[in-house]
From TrEMBL:
Residues 29-143 form the VanZ-like domain. NCBIfam families: vanZ_1 (NF037970). The chain crosses the membrane at residues 27-45, 65-89, 96-113, 133-152, 229-252, 259-281, 287-307, 319-335, 355-375. Signal peptide: none annotated. The keyword NAD does not apply. InterPro entries: VanZ-like (IPR006976). The lineage of its organism: Bacteria, Pseudomonadati, Pseudomonadota, Betaproteobacteria, Burkholderiales. Keywords: Membrane, Transmembrane, Transmembrane helix. This is VanZ-like domain-containing protein.
Length: 384
């Protein structure tokens, strides 16, 4: 027919690009599920069955005592779950089907958490929490469905991700994005993540019914002087900063801003630490982390990462893993910082109890997640 044009055909020079599944979204969904579980069941002690049916909370009257703050937190906490669930299903399942599956996931997770809370004497299962959590999952599912094609297929961020980061970086991006958030929970030493011996000591003490301090046993009762506390913080801070920055360096391509990104990432972690100190304690304690040991460790860590960043990526990964292991050993062998303990006495958790549980979860496990990524088999897979 005159004036009509033939449909445009794809040529070898312009092949059709098939949408890909997002490993980042699936990993982020798994991480968010872990955070929800930890925040919902924290502090994981005092489990007992009180004799009530597990579903009794669903048919009970609405709670008499609740606040707008709690309801808002419940909604906001499940919105990312709905968004990430839709993203994780893309491109295999989309639109209404993805929304319904994301909503179903939110309902199942929320119902399971509320049911398990009936076994915890310091937690209260609530049908209002169940409804607000489900509402958050629904809102997130709608947002995810409306934005999945933009974020996962035509997003500027997707282009930047492929231009700046290596193909193996998906898992690492999730873990490294959590590093600043891992600084929210109060720590005795700057970047003192991974201090698991006190938690293990509490569990063993409760199990054996006798007080046990694993850290004190490993130190053989040795006490540190003020100068040794300063040195311990320097070593802990320097090793974790250098290890974290090297982990980021080994994921960067040549076209990436190789010095701007690590610098901005470190500043973000320090900014989160400062804000958390001001909110959890008092505004005048915002910069309580600025000590001689912390500043010395920061400078030493930046210098170490700058020198080691010139190595080839496989060597960077090994050095980063070694530095994080040293930081883990140091933070678990060092005794509690008496100056930090004095500051901690002013901490009133209040409404942030559940949030602090999730923050502690991140603080404890972040170094182990980083080591898992650095030693993952995908780094040894040759790609064409």
């Amino acid at each position: 027919m005159a004036g009509s044009t033939a449909p445009e055909k794809m040529t070898p020079q312009h092949p059709a690009v098939e949408p890909e599944a997002s490993i980042v979204s699936r990993g982020a969904l798994l991480a968010w599920l872990f955070l929800i579980v930890y925040a919902s069941l924290y502090p994981f002690t005092g489990w007992q069955h009180v004799g009530l049916p597990l579903q009794a909370y669903l048919f009970a009257g609405m709670p008499r005592y609740w606040t707008g703050f709690d309801a808002t937190i419940n909604v906001l906490g499940y919105i990312p779950l709905g968004i990430l669930a839709v993203y994780a299903l893309h491109p295999r399942i989309r639109n209404v089907a993805a929304m319904l599956l994301a909503l179903l996931l939110g309902i199942v997770v929320s119902g399971t958490m509320e049911t398990l809370q009936t076994f915890l004497p310091n937690r209260v299962a609530s049908n209002l929490d169940f409804l607000t959590n489900s509402l958050g999952a629904l809102v997130g599912a709608v947002i995810g469905s409306r934005s999945s094609h933009l974020v996962l297929e035509r997003s500027r961020l997707r282009h930047v991700r492929h231009r700046w980061f290596t193909a193996e970086a998906s898992r690492g991006l999730i873990i490294l994005a959590l590093w600043p958030l891992a600084q929210i929970y109060p720590q005795g030493y700057l970047f003192g993540n991974g201090q698991i011996l006190p938690i293990l000591s509490e569990w063993l003490s409760a199990w054996l019914d006798i007080p046990i301090d694993l850290g004190d046993l490993l130190r053989s009762g040795v006490q540190l002087s003020a100068e040794q506390y300063w040195l311990a913080e320097t070593v802990i801070t320097a090793c974790q900063v250098a290890g974290a920055l090297l982990a980021l360096h080994c994921m960067l391509r040549d076209k990436a801003p190789r010095w701007l990104l690590p610098g901005a990432w470190l500043l973000a972690a320090l900014a989160v630490k400062t804000l958390a100190s001001a909110l959890l304690f008092k505004p005048q304690n915002a910069f309580a982390w600025v000590t001689a040991g912390a500043m010395g460790g920061l400078l030493l860590g930046i210098a170490l990462s700058t020198m080691l960043a010139r190595l080839r990526p496989p060597l960077q990964r090994r050095c980063a893993a070694a530095l994080l292991v040293i930081a883990l050993l140091a933070v678990n062998l060092a005794p509690p910082n008496p100056y930090f303990v004095a500051t901690l006495e002013t901490w009133v958790q209040g409404k942030f109890l559940n949030f602090n549980g999730a923050a502690q979860f991140l603080s404890l496990l972040w170094p182990f997640g980083a080591l898992w990524f650095l030693l993952h088999a995908t780094h040894r897979t040759k790609r064409k």
